[in-house]
Write a structure and sequence with these properties.
The chain is of the alpha/beta class. About 45% of the residues lie in helices and about 10% in strands. The chain has an eight-stranded parallel β-barrel, surrounded by six helices. The chain is globular.
Length: about 325
């Protein structure tokens, strides 16, 4: 079946250190997403209190939805099946939109502690983790997983995907790179196609989707109907909406983005200290420079400012002058 003929789902990726509840709220406000996933919650030695879960996902206090109404799935990272299951069962009492398991994080610190993509050398452990979590969570709550193609090579990619499926995952996301690849292009979309063909559950393609053309290309190569957007969503906050409506003119949309940037700045000041919030704004603008010349100018205007008090008037003036 031609994937272009199937009504697709678009999912916002979990991006550690970037896509927190503040950015999730803004990006889902821009529209186009079917659901999104939190940054990972690390599970090591104990069952975490509900306060630890709502700190990562305040949306749990809003029926597990962003302010725009987009469902939010809670992501856990760890390597102990029974402990992950216990945390998932505890989290289920808060009625999350889903439980997601992280087998894709490539960062050395996480991997040294036997988390994320480091587990892709152990398909049998992936099976045990998913099986334990699926048994612990009510059937009505989806259990999903995100994986990469492997650690240093793709030799075990199919074994890992099959282990997740046989463990009871409702669907999986495959980031089309190995851990060793990091985020370097190109993504290996053809390997996702092989996984999709081998599994009966839905497979969601992820990796190196920055534009409308990339979106159509990843669907064509992988055969996947559904796509998860990561860094491309932060670099172009209107990408999901652009995909839905089939137009491609980022430069014409700055007026919409000025409203989103203002909302982001207001929310991030509530969440972070005055000396921390400018860094978050610069991080996001730094990514948007890829698509928007106005973001280049705005980033330059606030780059040297270190406190919210210094940034706010510069930001307000710049947004007012460029949104007319």
């Amino acid at each position: 079946m031609n994937p272009e003929s199937i009504l697709p789902r678009i999912i916002l990726a979990p991006m550690e250190g970037l896509a927190d509840d503040v950015l999730r709220a803004v990006l889902t406000q821009a529209g186009g997403y079917d659901w999104c996933v939190t940054e990972f919650i690390r599970v090591t030695t104990a069952v975490l209190p509900h306060s630890a879960l709502t700190r990562v996902s305040p949306e749990l206090n809003n029926a597990s939805r962003t302010q725009a109404g987009t469902p939010v799935r809670l992501q856990f990272l760890g390597s102990a099946p029974e402990l992950l299951a216990a945390n998932a069962a505890h989290a289920a009492r808060l009625h999350p939109a889903g439980i997601d398991l992280n087998f894709g994080c490539p960062t050395p610190l996480v991997n040294r502690n036997r988390g994320g993509a480091a587990l892709l050398d152990e398909p049998e452990l992936l099976h045990r983790i998913v099986s334990a979590v699926r048994r612990a969570v009510p059937p009505a709550i989806p259990v999903t997983a995100k994986m990469r193609l492997g650690c240093n090579d793709t030799d075990k990619a199919l074994d890992c995907a099959r282990a997740l499926e046989s463990g009871g995952a409702d669907e999986i996301v495959v980031h089309a790179r190995t851990r060793a690849d990091g985020y370097r292009p190109p993504a290996r979309w053809e390997h996702v196609a092989a996984i999709r063909e081998a599994l009966r559950i839905p497979v969601i393609a992820n990796g190196e989707v920055w534009t409308l053309d990339d979106y159509h290309a990843i669907r064509r190569v992988t055969g996947c109907a559904d796509v998860m957007l990561g860094r491309g969503a932060a670099a172009d906050p209107l990408l999901a909406s652009r995909i839905r409506h089939g137009y491609a003119d980022p430069a014409a949309d700055w007026n919409i983005l000025t409203t989103l940037i203002a909302q982001f700045w207001s929310a991030v000041q509530i969440k972070l200290l005055p000396t921390q919030s400018p860094g978050r704004l610069k991080q996001w603008l730094g990514m948007m420079q890829r698509n928007y010349p106005q973001a280049v100018a705005l980033y330059a205007a606030i780059r040297e400012h270190r406190t919210a008090q210094d940034v706010s008037p510069v930001l307000a003036q710049h947004l007012a002058s460029t949104s007319s």
